[in-house]
Amino acid sequence: MRRRFDPGDERGGELLLAADIGGGRPRRLDAAKIRKIHNLETCARAWSPRVIRHAGGKPIRSCEGFADSLCRGDRPLPGWIAPCLPTLVARPPVGADWIHEIKWDGYRISVYVERGAVIVRTRNGYDWTARFPTIAEALGKLKVRSAVIDGEATVLDEKGGSSFAELQAELATGGGQRAVLYAFDLLFLDGEDWRARPLEERRAALAGLIKKKPPLLLSQEYAGTGADFFRVACEHELEGIVSKRLDKPYRSGRSKDWLKTKCVQTEEFVVIGYQPSSGAVRAPLANIKVARREDGTLRYMGAVGTGFSERVAKVLRDRLDAIRSPRCAVPKLKVAGALWTKPDLVVEIDFRGLSAGGELRHASFRGIVE
């Protein structure tokens, strides 16, 4: 690399970078634009230059692409940020320092946007960009140089509520076209790490980015009492709420700055069979039979017949038909008309306690555990 730089030049030290970028022509770069770069060669190497030399003439805007980010002092986006996870509590917190949001029923994701390119990652860091094409396309149109946004991907049911089961069915059969993102936090913006800033600032900046129409939606906050919001959430049969401290930074891992209060209990159960539909309208199935693993054995916990649409029920029926078994996995259990399966499929079930006989009360299918 050859470089000539005259600091005494009356134009303040103008540089010309000749770079091999798609056959690009030499571009002038005002030295003032690289004050944040500790070493000129750092910027040069990042842009794969051939020559840096002094140039005459009027300075023009340059520093495009990655070099643009470096010359502004932008921090590169991390490959993945472990999410902040709320701590489960029995009742919502009290105080003006807390805001409250709906606990969305879907997949927790973080999205990484840089110069229009988008990567969608799961809470464990897996790349699921291909599974959420409409979300990724919309994020690529945001008016930002770079950003990292935290949120929940879900599908809205006919009542406008989020449905994890519908999301799974959509990913299995529809290619993720109906999925939406409820964005609730901003971790990076235009080369700056925002995690140390209070939630109030992060939320305000996020609200300015999201246009609030599918597939990108802003998770709305409620600033009233958590108890009132929780009561309304439960009346509408939502999963629960998440409460967050407005004055706190973003911390990866389990945190007491974020608290979740659930309207229902959620647990994983093994499917051991299902009841075919017997009504006039032939639905894929009437209910599923579930069991809990206890000390190496299976204990029957009852039937679950709500929480899935016909579309979800068909996906579930196809999965169960593939693992049919001639006998029940729970010894001596007899249920008239039931078809049994191998205990290979695990599902999440919402319920509200147990009956006197030890079976699930008000049980509702939530989704398949992949």
Structure notes:
The chain is an alpha+beta fold and 370 residues long. Helix content is 18%, strand content 34%. The strands form four sheets. Strands 6, 7, 8, 9, 10, 11 and 12 form a seven-stranded mixed sheet that branches. Strands 15, 16, 17, 18, 19 and 20 form a six-stranded antiparallel sheet that branches. Strand 16 (287-294) and strand 17 (297-304) form a beta hairpin.
Key features of this structure:
alpha+beta; globular; 370 residues; 20 strands; ligase; D-amino Acid Aminotransferase, Chain A, domain 1; 18% helix; seven-stranded mixed beta sheet; OB fold (Dihydrolipoamide Acetyltransferase, E2P)
Write a short abstract of this structure:
With 370 residues, the protein is α+β, with helices and mostly antiparallel strands. It has three domains: 59 residues, no CATH class; 179 residues, D-amino Acid Aminotransferase, Chain A, domain 1; 104 residues, Nucleic acid-binding proteins (OB fold (Dihydrolipoamide Acetyltransferase, E2P), Beta Barrel), CATH 2.40.50.140. It has seven helices and 20 strands.
In DSSP terms (H or I, runs of 4 or more residues), the helix count works out at 7
Structural class: alpha+beta
Q: What are the low-pLDDT stretches, counting only 5+ consecutive residues below 50?
A: 1-67
Total count of domains: 3
What is the percent of helical residues? 10-25%
H/E element order: EEHEHEEEEHEEHEEHEHEEEEEHEEE
CATH class of the largest domain: Alpha Beta
